[in-house]
Specification:
With about 325 residues, the chain is of the alpha/beta class. It has a domain of about 230 residues: NAD(P)-binding Rossmann-like Domain (Rossmann fold), CATH 3.40.50.720. Helices cover about 40% and strands about 15% of the residues. The chain has 11 helices and 13 strands. The strands form 4 sheets. It has a 7-stranded parallel beta sheet, with helices on both faces. A two-stranded parallel ribbon has the order 7-10. Strands 8-13 form a two-stranded parallel sheet. The longest helix is centred in the N-terminal third of the chain and has 22 residues. The protein is globular, with a radius of gyration of 19 Å. The structure holds nicotinamide-adenine-dinucleotide. Nicotinamide-adenine-dinucleotide (NAD) binds next to helix 1 and helix 5.
């Protein structure tokens, strides 16, 4: 199979490339390195070289149609599947640069979707549970409506709304161009390479504080819960959504949206305790201002993913935190 992975030098994208390579797929990454890193792709380059498979990187903007033409040439003129992961992710960006979040998330999706349509390639859109906004009815499933608070209050939903509109455009392409497109929604994925800087995501941010022995900031009261999901579990689901012609239950996968998340709720305070236990540090969490628009809970209904993809979250949070901590301690900066 020949695949394009937009955002392939990022957290999920680089793990996805590693998983795709294991099946001898030829891959071309498109990433402008906004948050991606060349070093995230070191394993890919090494294993591709060992296996004798070409591995291509186009270091350009995935909003630009030309980037896809270059990628297509690198792949010898044909592509079977486009995994679209390029986006601006990281909560602080949603508040600080909503203009960038909306523009990049929309324009990259538009360019990737048009390209896949023109090539007759399968399309996988990485949406997000943030597309449901501040919905409080759980679990989140196909019939759940999105709830966004008024935009004059805060800009948090620049991201969630961009993913909602992305899903809408995917459905439009299916209806008007008969493209075979599927949607996946990862739930708080974590693991090696998840950014833990000030614009990063919570598991890595907490573990980074343990590493340098500095206080952990908890936004809000820490009682908000998430369903943290080990990166390889999430990537396995994204890969399956792109590989399977039909569901394992015989169902049509086109136009379906698959939640990829653990169903175990963990509060942010519980998470910080687990990070403290794993790292053996004595630092304590510090309660600070809430992120406006932060959902209180986010629990996936994964029955569709279980039945059609044969997917489930396998790795416990305890095990995943331990693995992430070991990686963090041993990484080369
Ligand atoms: N990590 C999660 O838990 C999670 C949850 C839900 C959805 N998602 C979605 O999954 C995808 C991957 O997320 P991630 O956590 O790996 O984030 P990430 O920031 O690590 O990866 C996104 C990649 O897109 C690249 N990118 C940004 N703008 C680009 C542009 N204009 N052209 C080319 N590349 C560009 C970045 O450089 C980065 O490498 C995103 O679409 C994100 O919204 C992630």
């Amino acid at each position: 199979m020949r695949a394009i992975v937009t955002g392939g030098a990022g957290f999920l994208g680089s793990h996805l490339c590693e998983a795709l390579l294991l099946d001898f797929n030829e891959i071309c990454v498109i990433d402008d390195m906004f948050r991606g890193k060349q070093k995230n792709l070191e394993n890919c380059k090494a294993s591709a070289a060992e296996m004798g498979i070409p591995f291509h990187i186009v270091m350009k903007d995935a909003s630009n149609p030309e980037s896809y033409e270059i990628a297509l040439r690198r792949l010898g003129g044909s592509v079977d599947v486009v995994y679209h992961l390029a986006a601006i992710n990281g909560t602080r960006w949603f508040h600080e640069r909503p203009d960038l979040v909306v523009r990049i998330n929309h324009n990259t999706l538009d360019a990737a979707l048009n390209f896949a349509t023109s090539q007759g390639a399968r399309f996988i859109f990485t949406s997000s549970p943030e597309a449901w906004g501040e919905q409080t009815t759980m679990p989140l499933d196909e019939n759940t409506s999105s709830i966004f608070s008024p935009p004059q209050l805060h800009q948090r939903h620049s991201y969630g709304a961009s993913k909602y509109i992305g899903e809408l455009l995917v459905h439009h392409a299916i209806r008007t161009h008969s493209i075979d497109a599927r949607i996946v929604r990862p739930f708080n994925s974590y693991g090696p390479r998840l950014p833990g800087d000030s614009h990063g995501q919570v598991v890595s941010m907490l573990l980074e504080k343990c590493l340098v022995n500095e206080p952990m900031e908890i936004h809000g009261n820490g009682q908000q819960t998430r369903c943290f999901t080990w990166v390889e579990d999430v990537v396995n689901g994204i890969k399956l959504a792109g590989e399977l012609d039909i569901g394992l239950d015989g169902s049509n996968l086109c136009g379906r949206a698959f939640n990829l998340g653990s169903t175990i709720e963990t509060s942010i305070l519980e998470l910080s305790d687990m990070c403290i236990q794993t790292s053996g540090t004595t630092i304590q969490p510090v309660i600070t201002t809430a992120h406006p628009g932060d959902a209180i809970r986010r629990i996936p209904d994964i029955s569709e993913s279980q039945q059609a993809l044969g997917w489930d979250a396998e790795v416990s949070l305890e095990e995943g935190i331990e693995r992430t901590w070991v990686w963090m301690k041993n990484r080369n900066h």
